[in-house]
Amino acid sequence: MTTLFTTVTTTKENSRRRNLLRLGGAASAAVLVLGLMGPGGARGQVTPLQIIPQAQGHSAEKHVNLHVNGPSDVLQALLVFQPGAETGWHIHPGPVVVVVKSGALTETHSNGCTTVHPTGSVFFESAGEVHNATNQTGGVAEVYATFISPTGAHPLIPVPNPGGVCRPEDNY
């Protein structure tokens, strides 16, 4: 024969302990839920905007030209340069904003002069500017580039090496 119910005898002390355990368990669960929901979650709100930085930098440029005639396409890309990697000589059909996330990028200009862009720097490339970007460090360099191009244009157009030789008065 199987017993479905059993009789349990409780005392006031056992009942009080059980209630305290239940109250402590409920409080712990509430703290856990509030912690998982984060700020504002206790009121049932979700943060309406989250800004999640991918790369951030600084530029001392005082004048930046980001002009494109007509409709445009925008492409944001992470470029990962292994040691010694380069873009090859090229131009862009529109302006480009570059943030160096890690490592350093050496930009060689059409006159043969170079500019080293270290981690945390920002630089701008104008439409039609002939240049080559190279990772001349021993580690990986990562940059975020935002290309603003006329609609349908390829953001990077290969061109021949202009053969410029840097003179001290031309250096950027």
State mean pLDDT (0 to 100 scale).
81
Instruction: Kindly state the number of beta strands.
Output: 9
Number of helices: 1
| Unreliable parts | 1-10, 16-37
What does this molecule look like?
- The chain has one helix at residues 12-37; strands spanning 72-81, 90-91, 96-102, 104-109, 114-118, 122-125, 131-134, 141-150, 157-158.
- It is an alpha+beta fold and 172 residues long.
- It has 2 domains: 12-43; 72-170, Sandwich (Jelly Rolls).
- The strands form 3 sheets. Strands 1-8-3-6 form a 4-stranded antiparallel sheet, with no helix packed on it. Strands 5-4-7 form a 3-stranded antiparallel sheet, with no helix packed on it.
- The longest helix is centred in the N-terminal third of the chain and has 26 residues, at 12-37.
- The radius of gyration is 30 Å and the shape is globular.
